[in-house]
């Protein structure tokens, strides 16, 4: 008796899920296959899947959304460092490294923001114009990634071991991973254009 009821329920669930995917225009398989080419595929899928309806099957929209995710994470990281520098009990060297990180993350934020604007211009361009705009995007995102990784250099050595260093490294790793993914997806879009 239970199996007779289970089959129609499973069928209804499959029909519902299929209808939901069709109705929303979501293309999670496009996101998964695109994210398979990046360095941090699990983070890529997790961060971009909520935007499947917007992305659909568009490499341009995928690249744009990945940059937007990187921008949001960079803003969050900037807020984190602004709060952290006011933390009581910081060692002078920790405070100096935090201020350096804040400057680096602010530069990174600016570069990703410029990249998003440039990518919009890039989408309307053709031929050499496309290549020029795309080169700007790739350079700025690559520089943003370098900036993010530079931040942790200030926390090198045994004197900096502790909660602050661990926290900073986790925060920087988070933003660096989404930025790395964004760069890979931008590069993939450039190849397909």
Explain this structure.
Helices cover 81% and strands 0% of the residues. By secondary structure, the protein is mostly helical. It has one domain (27-192): Up-down Bundle (Butyryl-CoA Dehydrogenase, subunit A, domain 3), CATH 1.20.140.40. Helix 2 (28-35) packs antiparallel against helix 3, helix 3 (41-48) packs across helix 8 (163-192) and helix 6 (92-124) packs antiparallel against helix 7. The longest helix is centred in the middle third of the chain and has 33 residues, at 92-124. It starts with a helix and ends with a helix. Residues 1-26 have low confidence and may be disordered.
Instruction: Compute the separation of the termini in Å.
Output: 56 Å
% residues in beta strands: under 5%
CATH superfamily: Invertase/pectin methylesterase inhibitor family protein
Weakly predicted, low-confidence segments: 1-26
H-E order: HHHHHHHH
Q: What is the percent of helical residues?
A: over 70%
Keywords: Hydrolase, Signal
GO molecular function: enzyme inhibitor activity; pectinesterase activity; pectinesterase inhibitor activity
Domain Pectinesterase inhibitor: 26-185
Signal peptide: 1-25
Write the layout of secondary structure elements.
Layout: H1 2-24, H2 28-35, H3 41-48, H4 52-55, H5 59-84, H6 92-124, H7 127-151, H8 163-192
């Amino acid at each position: 008796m239970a199996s007779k009821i289970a089959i129609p329920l499973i069928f209804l669930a499959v029909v519902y899920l299929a209808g939901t995917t069709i109705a929303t225009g979501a293309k999670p398989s496009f996101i998964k296959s695109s994210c398979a080419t990046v360095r941090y595929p699990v983070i890529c899928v997790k961060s971009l899947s909520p935007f499947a309806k917007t992305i659909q099957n568009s490499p341009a929209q995928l690249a744009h959304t990945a940059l937007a995710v990187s921008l949001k994470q960079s803003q969050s990281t900037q807020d984190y460092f602004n709060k952290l520098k006011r933390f009581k009990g910081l060692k002078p060297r920790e405070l100096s490294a935090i201020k350096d990180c804040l400057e680096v993350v602010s530069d990174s934020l600016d570069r990703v923001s410029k990249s998003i604007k440039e990518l919009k211009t890039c989408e309307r361009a053709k031929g050499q114009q496309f290549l020029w705009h795309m080169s700007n995007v790739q350079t700025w995102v690559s520089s943003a990634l370098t900036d993010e990784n530079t931040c942790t250099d200030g926390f090198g050595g045994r004197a900096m071991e502790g909660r602050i260093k661990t926290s900073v490294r986790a925060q920087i790793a988070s933003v660096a991973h989404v930025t790395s993914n964004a760069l890979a997806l931008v590069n993939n879009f450039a190849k397909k254009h």
